[in-house]
Write a structure and sequence with these properties.
Keywords: Hydrolase. GO terms for molecular function: hydrolase activity. This is Hydrolase of the HAD superfamily. InterPro entries: HAD-like_sf, HAD_sf. By secondary structure, the chain is an alpha/beta fold. Helices cover 34% and strands 25% of the residues. The protein has 8 helices and 9 strands. The protein has a 5-stranded parallel β-sheet, sandwiched between helices. A 4-stranded antiparallel β-sheet has the order 7-8-6-9. Strand 1 (6-10), helix 1 and strand 2 form a beta-alpha-beta unit. Helix 1 (16-26) packs parallel to helix 5 (106-115). The protein is globular and about 45 Å long. The model is unreliable at 122-131 and 167-172 (pLDDT under 50).
Length: 213
């Protein structure tokens, strides 16, 4: 199997073993919790970003939910793996061509990740070499995005550019998000190395953060 560069997870019952597996996979690919519920979960501190179906307006297992999530994350179907506790979500993802695994237990999660090279030290790239360079803060309100961009620019972040992103690919204001693009932190390091700090800012504005190359 081809090693994915994006891992979508929905593990409401994540135990200590599952969390260890997620940490190991995160050293080899980008990891995002993708769930119907917007509520914070035990898994959140272990992932690069959180995308909720409530946030994008469509719930799993509707195929449109997966399309919108990948558009927000700027990622391709072919390089994505979904690990989900719900078999209906897995079936829906597979119907779109997304590699997906039903993982009701930590053992099933281990097998799914190992089979795709995400737990194999010999066949993967070190996380320090593949870490995201930049970061995107995704908000639903234009004014909030411009205000946050101005705050970040004053603090030394760059370039703090604001873009309009259409989730559904149509000219419909209800489907538009506003994205603040960041490449460099005030200390000169890549913005992608500060996802935890930026996530706190995004949470304040009811948005979310994702890394970018």
């Amino acid at each position: 199997m081809t090693r994915p560069s994006l891992l979508l997870l929905d593990l409401d019952g994540a135990d200590a073993e599952a969390l260890d597996l997620v940490r190991a996979a995160r050293r080899r690919c980008r990891v995002v919790r993708f769930a119907n519920s917007p509520e914070r979960a035990r898994l959140d501190p272990e992932v690069d970003a959180v995308v909720s179906s409530a946030r994008i307006g469509v719930a799993k297992p509707d195929p449109e939910a997966f399309r919108r999530a990948l558009r927000v994350l700027q990622h391709s179907v072919s390089a994505t793996l979904l690990c989900d506790e719900d078999p209906e979500n897995v079936a829906a993802a597979r119907g779109l061509g997304i590699d997906a695994a039903h993982v009701p237990t930590a053992r099933a999660l281990r097998e799914a990740l190992s089979a795709r090279g995400l737990l194999d030290e010999q066949s993967t790239v070190d996380h320090d070499q593949s870490e995201q360079d930049g970061a995107l803060i995704v908000l639903s309100d234009k004014e909030d995005a411009h205000r946050l961009a101005a705050e970040l620019e004053q603090s030394g972040w760059a370039p703090c550019a604001v873009h309009r992103d259409m989730l559904a690919g149509e000219d419909d204001a209800e489907d538009a998000d506003w994205v603040v693009e960041l490449r460099t932190a005030p200390d000169g390091t890549p913005a992608g190395a500060h996802l935890a700090e930026l996530t706190e800012l995004a949470d304040r504005e009811e948005g979310f953060v994702t890394g970018m190359n």
